[in-house]
Design brief:
The chain has 461 residues and is mainly beta. The protein has three domains: 147 residues, Immunoglobulin-like, CATH 2.60.40; 151 residues, Cupredoxins -  blue copper proteins (Immunoglobulin-like, Sandwich); 135 residues, Immunoglobulin-like (Sandwich). The protein contains four helices and 29 strands. The protein has a six-stranded mixed beta sheet, with no helix packed on it. The protein has a five-stranded mixed beta sheet with strand order 11-19-18-13-16, with no helix packed on it. Bound molecules: CU-O-CU linkage and copper (II) ion (2 copies). One copper (II) ion (CU) binds next to strand 5.
């Protein structure tokens, strides 16, 4: 058995629930994983959906596991007859491993392999997706969760990973074109089948009265999930990968949690103390409640308490020096008409609707671009993000973590993140230390917005 099979098996354990035990030795060699981009089919609805894109047959992309500070080698073979490139969302790794075509590497052609090598500096819940043919490959299924384990054991009995995403299917359950131009120019085009781990409302068993680490990732191309659990016996312990430094209240039906595309939340959950009782994860969709997944108590009561958990250790993030921080303003809005998008080998929606500072860039393309900001390595900065549109935008920065400071609309908690959900006409200041050199993609994670201009990059030099 190759290590790759081992990791993928471990990753696949989320279908049955329970802990994926990797038996990590203190001096483990690099995690070597072979991944192969391939077409597959899967039963999402009533008839198998063909032409999906995954990394194995008849299964969603696996959870990829790593450990903080341990090298990983991911050999990505592209078995499709179109180009790709893989991005590791949220990982603060060297620029040339970031998977952005033309900006950090050339697109990977069919039958070509690219070896991604990096050592994750931070623990937490991250994810991966292509950054070339982004719209179609993601909409066809290619979005997976990445778990970087802490060096310490926090004391959970088990873990559950929920990858939330929608698919846009026609009447015969086949993939429809993932966008409409009308959608791309507005809030995006929504799928019509909402899934967790490609399944409809899967049920996962966990021990009665035990402590479960629930990792939820929104890897959808469009939908901002509005979520709550039917139990508030829990605690949000991490947000977008990083341990929370400012307590986010547990969501309720009245005050659900907004999780934009690209965002993740880790929740420490106490399972119900009576066997057969459950915690439901619910999404609110236009006033309706949609069951996404269930955690079910089974077996004898473990009598655990949330107080027994060891707090997650902080990730090694540099604190911005707000006194010396220079301010850069970035405006997200409509595009001044008519720039013809040209995405090389990486796919285009054929139109431009959006821009950053009035300059549209369809991403995934080297030509006609200059950085939207140039930052000096090691210095602190405040980026003033101004949404001059009525639509929401989950704004994502590669390679660096940042802290939101203040908003003109609401009180915000300054927890570390890589993706901030900007509300309608909101202006938010975020702070960061430019401590990772390179050209870092910076874009809206509603993929239709990204691919029609709401994209750019920030240079750290
Ligand atoms: Cu999830 Cu450019 O990123
Ligand atoms: Cu990213
Ligand atoms: Cu957007």
């Amino acid at each position: 058995m190759k290590r790759r099979d081992f990791l993928i098996t471990a990753g696949a354990s989320f279908f049955t629930g329970g802990v994926a035990s990797l038996g990590l030795g203190a001096n483990a060699a690099p995690f070597v994983t072979d991944l192969e981009l391939q077409k597959t089919s899967f039963l999402l609805q009533n008839q198998p959906t063909k032409n999906m894109v995954s990394l194995s047959q008849n299964a969603p992309p696996p959870v990829i596991y790593g450990q903080q500070g341990k090298p990983m080698h991911l050999n990505l073979l592209n078995s499709l007859d179109e180009y790709t490139a893989m991005h590791w969302h949220g990982l603060r790794i060297p620029n040339k491993m970031d998977g952005v075509p033309y900006l950090t590497q050339l697109p990977i052609a069919g039958n070509e392999t690219f070896r991604y090598e990096f050592t994750p500096p931070d623990a937490g819940t991250y994810w991966y997706h292509p950054h070339c043919m982004t719209m179609t490959q993601m909409a066809s299924g290619l979005t997976g969760v990445m778990v970087i384990k802490e060096k310490i054991d926090s004391g959970f009995d088990s873990e559950e990973i929920i990858n939330l995403r929608d698919f846009r299917l026609d009447k015969s359950d086949q993939l429809k074109k993932p966008y409409t131009l009308r959608g791309a120019a507005r809030a995006g085009t929504f799928g019509n089948v909402m899934t967790a781990n490609w399944l409809k409302a899967p049920v996962y068993n966990h021990k009665t009265g035990s402590l479960v680490r629930l990792r939820i990732a929104n890897t959808d191309t469009t939908r901002i999930y509005s979520l709550f659990l039917t139990s508030t016996e829990g605690q949000i312990i991490a947000w977008d990968g990083h341990p929370t430094e400012h307590q986010i209240p547990m969501p309720t039906e009245q005050h659900p949690l907004l999780l934009g595309p690209g965002q993740r939340v880790d929740i420490a959950c106490k399972m119900p103390e009576i066997e057969g009782q459950a915690i439901n994860l619910i999404a609110k969709v236009r006033g309706h409640k949609k069951l996404m997944s269930t955690l079910l108590s089974i077996g004898p009561d473990q009598k655990r308490s949330l107080k027994e958990l060891t707090p997650l250790p902080k990730n090694p993030l540099a604190k911005p020096d707000l006194k010396s921080a220079k301010i850069h303003e970035l405006i997200f809005g409509w595009s001044p008409e008519g720039t013809e998008p040209n995405n090389g080998f990486c796919g285009s929606l054929g139109k431009t609707f959006w821009s950053i500072n009035r300059v549209p860039w369809p991403g995934d393309n080297a030509s006609n671009t200059s950085p939207v900001a140039t930052l000096k390595l090691g210095n602190s900065y405040i980026l003033r993000l101004r949404n001059s549109s009525p639509n929401l935008h989950p704004i994502h920065l590669h390679g660096l973590a940042f802290k939101p400071l203040r908003s003109n609309k609401r009180k915000i908690l300054p927890n570390w993140t890589d993706t901030f959900l900007l509300l309608k006409n909101e202006v938010v200041d975020i702070a960061l230390v430019a401590d990772n050199p390179g050209d870092w993609a910076f874009h809206c994670h509603v993929i239709e917005h990204q691919k029609t201009g709401l994209s750019g990059y920030i240079r750290v030099t």
